[in-house]
Design goal:
The complex is a heterodimer of chains A (849) and B (245). Chain A is built from 24 helices and 24 strands. By secondary structure, chain A is of the alpha+beta class. Among the domains of chain A are: 58-249, no CATH class; 462-528 and 713-849, no CATH class; 532-703, no CATH class. In chain A, the strands form four sheets. In chain A, strands 4, 5, 6, 7, 8, 9, 10 and 11 form an eight-stranded mixed sheet that branches. In chain A, strands 16-17-22-19-21-20 form a six-stranded mixed β-barrel. Chain A has a four-stranded antiparallel sheet with strand order 3-13-1-14. In chain A, helix 11 crosses helix 12, helix 12 (438-470) packs antiparallel against helix 22 (763-799) and helix 14 (489-527) packs antiparallel against helix 20. The radius of gyration of chain A is 33 Å and the shape is globular. Chain B is α/β, with parallel strands linked by helices and 245 residues long. Chain B has helices at residues 45-52, 75-84, 101-111, 118-128, 143-156, 173-190, 201-204, 227-244; strands at 3-12, 19-29, 34-38, 60-65, 68-69, 86-89, 161-165, 194-197, 209-214, 217-223. In chain B, the strands form two sheets. A six-stranded mixed sheet of chain B has the order 6-7-8-3-9-10, sandwiched between helices. The radius of gyration of chain B is 18 Å and the shape is globular. The model of chain B has no long low-confidence stretch (mean pLDDT 87). The chains are: A alpha+beta (849), B alpha/beta (245). The interface between A and B is medium-sized, with 23 and 27 residues. The complex binds adenosine-5'-diphosphate and magnesium ion (MG). Adenosine-5'-diphosphate (ADP) binds next to strand 2 and helix 1 of chain B.
């Protein structure tokens, strides 16, 4: 039995390669993810280790608001007062101690007038410490006057600036211009530490621009006296300073930094694993189909084996053995490709971020294990059904002439109905529910729904396929192709279902995104009575900001009725972390956003007053006249009293603080501005004047309503692009599936093709027949995908109604594109099988057994 | 002449594995006649028929169908020839399972983009006795009925010549007799030319003429054969082949 299995396996190399390809791709992404993260994390590890090797002990302050996770944005810089340096110096065993300023957000404007972009690594602004062991001066000298700066070599190169140039820098404050007096590198001849850029100022300038505080530092770097162990010194300093400060050895700092990056890397990991999941999910359909077809074709052979005495179990075993063999081969190939992909991505990553030295490409054991587990498991799971079917072939089938007729579809249909219902139920629970499991429930719901619909596909397929086919029925090859595509409803169904997955995904995402865009549009139109908007790209790590004076000045412009600016930060309110906003003018804000006041009244806010909306009132249990303790990014906790509770609105903030509170925000600059014009004034009349006010904030611009919408939804396009790559992958695999099905069908119908050729079908007509079959299957898959995707998208949109997505929009033009794509896929997928069919030697085909 | 073979040789393979299936066959098949090609298994009957019908290329020699020289035609030319001048009946798997009997019969015309002549179609259907089976699919027809559908299909385009390779090889004797009777009728009544390969003396007796092949050569032939006569000749084939060779 074993030998028979291997023999039949080898005789069908092509088909197996095709079906295995999906698994290869899936395994490739899985092992690629492991290789990439392993390689990068080791690279960063060694980077930090060498970067912090010069530090014995470091003293840092605890941030007022603990940062938690990536989506929180950069935390406010935690500061310690300058006298801490003196206190540290006094600790026995300290050879020297220096105060360091270092904070994210020093953005240099390059020689081309644009801000030098970052693709992830921080843009640090620091003080210059003479004789620091980390920085190595390459050219010029360190900043000695407050109008001087030095930058690291990679930044000088990227910005195209040289010593002696006037260089502008954006910090906590708008553009400031300095003379570049020095360029430095790092120990080991590095131009950058892991792609980070650094601008070094004098101590007072660094304190003011990067920390926003005088006489403060971010940390104190300590050198141990000879013979003093860093760990012992750390403990001594900690007990001298008390627990308001964090004292760490250089080694601890390196470990913390590396751990921070590992978290960032998990992002890549998740993307690649997502790709793998899609590839494998679609791959299961493909393998299932291939095995089913192969078994249908081998009915006689299997029946003969049964007649000769094989048991059912042996038949199942032989099919599963094939699956294991394919899975193993796919795992090996996928692992190889995954190592390549991982290495390539790691190289791309270092090239994009500039300056990370790659540690050797590593193949962690986890990547090998997961490759084999995933490869074999997925293949075997997909082969279980066909194996069971094979085992049910009766021995008499060996004598029967024709293949067993297609079984009725009742059972699959009932099963499909049940599974679809289960998927819908999961979705409903996931979409309506709150809680941590929500995302998983939705994902599971989508997945289960896909399977359910796939099971229903044979039934849906019959009328749809025959209807679609009628389009082509005017020609004989078209008619024959149409009939062929209706021949094996299950086969057509699974092939189409594989294509459905990709198209449903992209359609669903499109529905949600377009609905969100439309809803935003509606909100901006209905409830924001402003004609000009000031802001920057919201997808930046650090939201672009501008100076509050811009709003003051804008308010004085002729043609402007009112101008309002918003500060943004996170804070602890009664111990719970939340986002909040401070406004330059609460009354004007309430007017522009036409917000309804439920209780109390909005006037000019006093320094201890705040306005909250009904959601926040419920969340914090507050009412007009009551007060809450608010810890902002800086300063001590402060009590604010509620003067008004507003209706909750998608545009009006949940907690609104007076402008004075912004002094204690991490960033004391505005993130958004709204300008209401006098009646009859055109936005274009005022726009240039506001633009001039923004000259020192190049990341921010003033735009009209449509520009504002574009700015706000720019993130949408990025998400779409990401998804489109995923889709391309899913579709690629589905195309393999269509090709596979067609090739198998062509082989199966060799004799028929020979007959048709013998009675006069031309080569071109033969190819046309196969193409029609392919197009019918693909368009059917695309239609299914559109329907399922639109349904899923609509469900999500309805669930997000309370989040402000009130409009349901179907992206008709995109959907039409996807349908056309389906037809094109059909033509492309038919190329090879059609060629094969057309090339058949008539005589051999007729003699084909 | 409906079909003609002129010194046709056919060699399969090369070197050790070389098989010479036809060794200089010259034969003519007159219009309006029913010719059977007989011979023992492996004598080259199918090969000769395939070469005659343009399904296979000859190694040497020429084939004509009507006035058309088949040898050297391109695939397009061969396709056209099959559409217009040749009909086929194979031993089995003659029909497309997706099409009804009627659709199968009309398939060659449909492929060629032609309309059937209604009267002729009626005649053919009536002669094969399938009038009430036209809407059935092959799986719903018996083997004999399937072969009769195949015969009707071969005849409906009025080809120059119909080639049949063991058309009754898979049928019981009664169904076989029906098919053979129908083929003979179409020759007698409508002047169809038929060339049929068979190894069954009884089937051969339906023909007007029997050509005997042995070892890739024509050794003898019989006119107006009877089953016994054919059987007799078959028995003496070895001797005849010896004399000729
Ligand atoms: N495609 C082929 N390749 C090699 N040899 C062949 C091929 N087709 C037929 N033959 C050989 O040619 C000879 C004649 O075969 P065939 O015409 O099929 O005989 P028949 O139909 O009389 O039984 C046989 O020896 C057969 O083995
Ligand atoms: Mg033969």
């Amino acid at each position: 039995m074993f030998r028979a299995t291997l023999k039949s396996l080898l005789s069908r190399k092509l088909r197996l390669v095709m079906s295995g390809l999906a698994v290869v791709l899936g395994v490739m992404f899985v092992s690629g993810a492991f290789v990439l993260t392993d390689t990068l994390s080791r690279s960063f590890d060694s980077l930090f280790r060498s970067a912090y090797s010069t530090i014995d002990v470091s003293v840092g302050a605890k941030p007022k608001i603990a940062s938690g996770g990536l989506e929180d944005g950069p935390p406010a810089p935690a500061t310690l007062p300058a006298d801490v340096v003196e206190r540290v110096r006094a600790v026995p065993g300290v050879a020297s101690a220096a105060g360091d300023v270092s904070a994210e957000g020093a953005r240099v404007i390059g020689a081309n007038g644009k801000v030098v972009p970052s693709f992830g690594p921080p843009r640090l602004g620091t003080n210059w410490v003479d004789g620091s062991r980390l920085a190595e001066l390459r050219e010029g000298h360190g900043p000695a006057a407050d109008n001087q700066i030095a930058v690291n070599a990679s930044l000088a190169k990227a910005a195209g600036i040289k010593v002696g140039d006037q260089v502008s820098v954006l910090t906590l404050q708008p553009r400031k211009t300095f003379t570049l007096v020095g360029i430095f590198g790092y120990s080991g001849g590095r131009d950058t530490l892991g792609g980070a850029t650094q601008v070094a100022f004098t101590d007072p300038v660094a304190q003011e621009l990067m920390l926003g505080e005088k006489n403060a530092y971010s940390s104190v770097t300590v050198d141990a006296a000879p013979g003093v162990q860093p760990a012992a010194l750390r403990d001594a300093i900690q007990s001298a300073l008390g627990d308001r400060y964090e004292v760490k050895t250089g080694k601890q700092l390196a470990d913390d930094a590396a751990a921070g990056f590992e978290q960032a890397l998990s992002f890549f990991n998740n993307i690649l694993l997502g790709f793998a999941a899609v590839a494998l999910f679609v791959g299961v359909f493909l393998i299932l189909n291939t095995f089913s077809i192969i078994i249908a074709q081998r009915t006689r052979e299997l029946a003969l084996l049964r007649a000769l005495g094989s048991s059912r179990r042996q038949v199942i075993g032989s099919v599963l053995l094939e699956a294991v063999a394919i899975g193993l081969v796919a795992a090996v190939l996928g692992l190889g490709a995954g190592i390549g992909v991982g290495a390539l991505l790691a190289k791309l990553f270092t090239a994009a971020t500039g300056g990370l030295e790659l540690a050797g490409i590593g193949v962690p054991a986890a990547s090998v294990i997961s490759a084999f587990v995933v490869g074999v498991l997925v293949t075997v799971v997909a082969a279980v059904l066909p194996a069971l079917r094979a085992s049910r072939i009766p021995p008499v089938a060996a004598m029967a002439d024709v293949a067993t007729p297609d079984r009725p579809l009742t059972r699959v249909t009932v099963l499909g109905g049940v599974v679809s219902a289960a998927g819908a139920a999961l979705l409903t629970v996931g979409l309506s529910g709150a809680g941590d499991a929500t995302l998983w429930l939705i994902l599971a719901g989508v997945l289960v729904s896909f399977i359910g619909v796939a099971l229903l596909t044979p039934l849906i397929g019959r009328p749809v396929v025959s209807l679609l086919g009628r389009i082509f029925s005017w020609s004989v090859p078209g008619r024959l192709g149409r009939l062929n595509s209706g021949r094996n409803p299950r086969r057509t169904a699974i092939t189409a279902a594989a294509l459905m997955v990709g198209i449903a995904l992209i359609t669903g995402v499109n529905v949600v995104l377009q609905s969100a865009t439309k809803s935003l549009d509606k909100i901006a139109t209905d409830s924001v009575d402003a004609q000009l908007f000031i802001g920057g790209d919201p997808t930046e790590d650090r939201p672009p900001t501008f100076d509050p004076t811009v709003i003051t000045e804008a308010g004085k412009l002729p043609g402007v009725r009112t101008a309002v600016g918003e500060y943004f930060d996170q804070a602890m309110v009664n111990g719970t972390k939340t986002y909040l906003v401070a406004t330059t003018d609460a009354v004007a804000a309430a007017d522009i956003f036409s917000v309804k006041v439920n209780s109390g009244a909005i006037g000019a806010l006093g320094a201890d007053q705040m306005v909250i909306n009904s959601d926040a009132a419920k969340k914090f249990g507050l009412a007009v006249g009551q007060s809450a303790t608010v810890q902002l990014s800086r300063g001590e906790p402060h009590r604010f009293t509620v003067v008004a509770v507003t209706e909750s609105s998608p545009v009006f903030p949940g907690i609104l603080l007076p402008p004075a509170a912004a002094e204690d925000f991490a960033v004391r600059q505005l993130v958004a501005g709204y300008i209401q014009l006098r009646p009859g004034v055109q936005p274009a009349q005022v726009q240039p004047d506001v633009d001039r006010l923004l000259a020192d904030s190049p990341e921010v611009s003033v735009v009209d309503r449509s520009g504002f919408l574009k700015q706000q939804t720019s993130g949408v396009d990025q998400v779409l692009q990401m998804i489109q790559i995923l889709l391309a992958l899913a579709i690629l695999i589905a195309v393999l599936g269509v090709i596979n099905t067609l090739v198998l069908s062509v082989i199966e119908r060799t004799r028929e093709l020979g007959l048709l050729r013998a009675i006069g079908l031309r080569r071109g007509q033969t190819a046309g027949m196969v193409t029609v079959e392919s197009v019918v299957i693909s368009v059917f898959g695309a239609l299914l995908g559109l329907a399922v995707g639109a349904g899923l998208g609509a469900a999500v949109v309805r669930a997000l109604n309370s989040q402000g997505i009130t409009e349901l929009v179907f992206p008709w033009s995109q959907m039409a594109t996807y349908l056309a794509l389906g037809a094109i896929i059909g033509v492309v997928a038919a190329l090879l099988p059609a060629l094969r069919a057309a090339r058949l030697n008539v005589l051999n085909a007729i003699a084909h057994e | 002449m409906a079909a003609r073979a002129n010194d046709v040789w056919k060699v399969y393979g090369a070197g050790e594995a070389q098989v010479v299936a036809l060794r200089g066959v010259t034969a003519e098949f007159a219009r309006g006649r029913f010719t059977a090609i007989m011979g023992p298994s492996g004598s080259g009957k199918s090969t000769l028929m395939h070469c005659l019908a343009g399904l296979d290329a000859t190694s040497r020699g020429e084939i004509f169908i009507g006035d058309t020289k088949v040898t050297g035609l391109s695939d397009g030319g061969l396709t056209k020839l099959r559409r217009t001048k040749v009909g086929f009946i194979f031993q089995q798997f003659n029909l497309l399972p997706t099409l009804t009997a009627k659709e199968n019969i009309l398939l060659p015309l449909a492929i060629a983009g032609q309309k059937p002549e209604p009267e002729w179609f009626e005649t053919v259907i009536k002669t094969v006795g399938l009038t009430d089976r036209l809407g059935h699919r092959p799986a719903q027809l018996s083997g004999g009925q399937q072969q009769r559908v195949a015969c009707a299909r071969a005849l409906v385009s009025r080809p120059e010549v119909v080639f049949a390779d063991e058309p009754t090889g898979n049928l019981d004797s009664r169904s076989g007799a029906e098919v053979l009777g129908f083929l003979r009728n179409s020759v007698r009544e409508y002047g169809q030319t038929i060339v049929m390969v068979t190894h069954d003396p009884n089937a051969a007796s339906y023909a007007d003429r029997v050509v005997f092949l042995a070892d890739g050569q024509i050794v003898t032939e019989l006119s107006e054969p009877t089953a016994d006569g054919v059987l007799d000749t078959m028995k003496r084939l070895d001797v005849l082949a010896g004399v000729n060779g």
